[in-house]
Design brief:
461 residues, alpha/beta, TIM Barrel, six-stranded parallel β-sheet, 15 helices, disordered N terminus, binds zinc ion
Length: 461
Amino acid sequence: MNPLSNRRRPSYIRTLFLLLSLSTAVATAQDGAVGGEQLFSNARLIIGDGQLIERGSLLLRGDVILAVGPEAEALASEDAQRHDLGGQTVMPALVNTHAHLGWEAYGDWGSQHFTDANLIDHLYRHAYYGVGTIISTGSDKEDVARRVKLEQQRGNIGGARYHLSPGMGSPGGGPNPRFTDDPDYWGVHPVADPEQAVRTVQELAAQGYGIAKIWVDSRDERRGAQVKLAPEIYRAVLGTALNYDMRIIAHATTLTDHKALVGVGARRFIHMPYDTAVDQEYLDMVRRNNVYIVPTLGMITKREPYYVPAFRDPFFYDQVSPDVLESLNSGYQPPGEQSAAAATRSAMLAENLRMLKEHIILGTDAGAVGDFFGYADHVELALFVRMGMTPMEAIVASTSRAATAFGLNEVGTLAAGKAADFVVLDANPLDDIANTRQIDEVYIRGQRVDREDLRNNWTQD
Ligand SMILES: [Zn+2]
């Protein structure tokens, strides 16, 4: 259960104020150098694909990167706006492939919060923490979401780039009971048989969706509520999606389901096998088929060794009021009081992650399980490293590989022709992954995010 449920609803006035100030922030940013050239020099450049340039420059024009590296300086026009970064580190903005926008209201949670204003707020929360692209997976109210996405494409809304992935599932099934038990929940696109699966994928493709989600999970079958999606149905989804260049991401948490899904064409997973250690057969399948896996370590509970207590972390305080913060520590078991079973499970998860590390991509599940937008991404990065990845591997998983997994080719690396989405850091995350938190500035679409203004809005009572 979310510790924040039913605590406090943001008032109409607070929401209105936030919206007004957000539009001011956008307008201010757009008064700047839109269309003009900007040169960021004297920086350590983490490219996002594993390359590092110890000292170089980044040249932008408008929202696009023109050049990266030592030559960017020479290519800059005379009237380029110049920023000497004095040795700071620049890395691509993060790409988060698994979150649930719209339901969290920071004091309350539910479908009633899925409004334009709340969705926009969540895009800005991600941007604040250096997340430039967000895929919201299967729980969005599509009419509201499409409207907000369109406004963002028009340039009227900033924040992280918003990608929608409609959800398909067994009738009455789909996401976890927190969502499905909500009396006003709009449900998933039901796929009861292979024919309906084919039709649904065709309809979603016709509406322009390039990403969609399926749930293959029996968690609620035990409660009599949800029948696990049958293999002939998900095979129909995956096969049809191929014809429309639609990328399907499958929610599955067991090794058996992962193998069955890869066997019929699944290439992207939300969740890694949590039930058992991965075996050689699975690893071979994953490598042969270039499968992408979102481990979603954010689901680690407050009783396990890898849990990161957000309520003790000043980096988290930026986006919550003191009363929300206070409510968060219930149920926390500090390391000394944890069970042996929890330790065994954590060790197994860490070993699975290490075995799969060349296939791992960033996703937080934030907005569904009581984790918080943007902040959760830095927790995930830290867990990647604690579980055995190098900081560079963790950054690649969270930038270029996450983008490639979904064909989001404009983001994820610092390279000529790519989107000008990047983070300026005061310390080098290759020395310590916690340095991704040392954010000086965030730029999305070549525009500086007004973090101070956002922080002031979120932390007031
Ligand atoms: Zn999720």
